[in-house]
Amino acid sequence: MRTQNNFKKGAVEMLLLHILKEKGDCYGYQMSQLIKTISDEYLLIPEGSMYPALYKLIEKRYITDYKKQVGKRMIRVYYHIEKEGIERLSDLIREYYETNNSIEKILKHDFRDENAEENDYE
């Protein structure tokens, strides 16, 4: 079962900020395609999730946006990470690793040892 559409909203925020920090200014569709391609199409962020996340990042002043004309008629909205966004990304990455490490500890825990201890108390 694939869960790419069910991962936490914080993960979307973290991925968008990471791309902007590492790649530089990008437009929305470009970021969604990068995530899709780099994850071998495992992570898919639909527009209905991505753009609200971008708007929240703008509201919180983690990123800014600007318009750039491409060709004669097309205008793209590019996003730029701000200093506050870099700080937020650092917090999100730390929380991500702490959460993953805690989950891994539980998954690797040998519950048989605890069952033996519980039987000693009975």
Question: Topology, please?
Answer:
Blueprint: H1 9-23, E1 26-27, H2 28-38, H3 47-59, E2 63-70, E3 74-81, H4 83-108, H5 111-121
Helix pairs in contact: 1-3, 1-4
Number of strands: 3
**Separation of termini?**
40 Å
Structural class: alpha+beta
Sheet having the most strands: 3 strands, antiparallel
Shape: elongated
- Number of contiguous helices: 5
Estimate the mean pLDDT confidence. 89
Helix content bin: 55-70%
Strand neighbour order, sheet with most strands:
1-3-2
Unreliable parts: 1-6
Whole-number radius of gyration? 20 Å
Please trace the helix and strand order, writing H or E for each element.
Answer: HEHHEEHH
- From the structure provided, what is the oligomeric state, counting identical versus distinct chains? single chain
Range of strand content: 5-15%
Task: Tell me what you see in this structure.
- With 122 residues, the chain is of the alpha+beta class.
- The protein has 5 helices and 3 strands, in the order αβααββαα.
- Strands 1-3-2 form a 3-stranded antiparallel sheet.
- A hairpin with a 3-residue loop joins β2 and β3.
- α1 crosses α3.
Key features of this structure:
alpha+beta, 5 helices, elongated, disordered N terminus
Can I get a quick summary?
The chain has 122 residues and is an alpha+beta fold. The protein is 62% helix and 15% strand.
